[in-house]
Amino acid sequence: MDIKKEIDGSVCDSVCDSVSNSVWDSVGSSVYSSVFVSVRDSVGSSVGRSVHVSVRNTVNIAIREYEY
User: Fold this and answer.
1) Full-prediction pTM beyond 0.85?
2) 3-state SS of the chain: helix, strand, coil percent to 5?
């Protein structure tokens, strides 16, 4: 058993692990943030649309009742 090879191997493994972990973290966070933003935008637009429609319908009904 060659001690130098074992030490070099463990150092290389730990460096490779940390590099791959940081790469995966950055990729994962960017993907997560883009997914989060798109979900937030779609949910926000649908909620905003439904609120807008309900307010508009309520106003239209109130106007119609006021005219009669």
Assistant:
1) no
2) 95, 0, 5
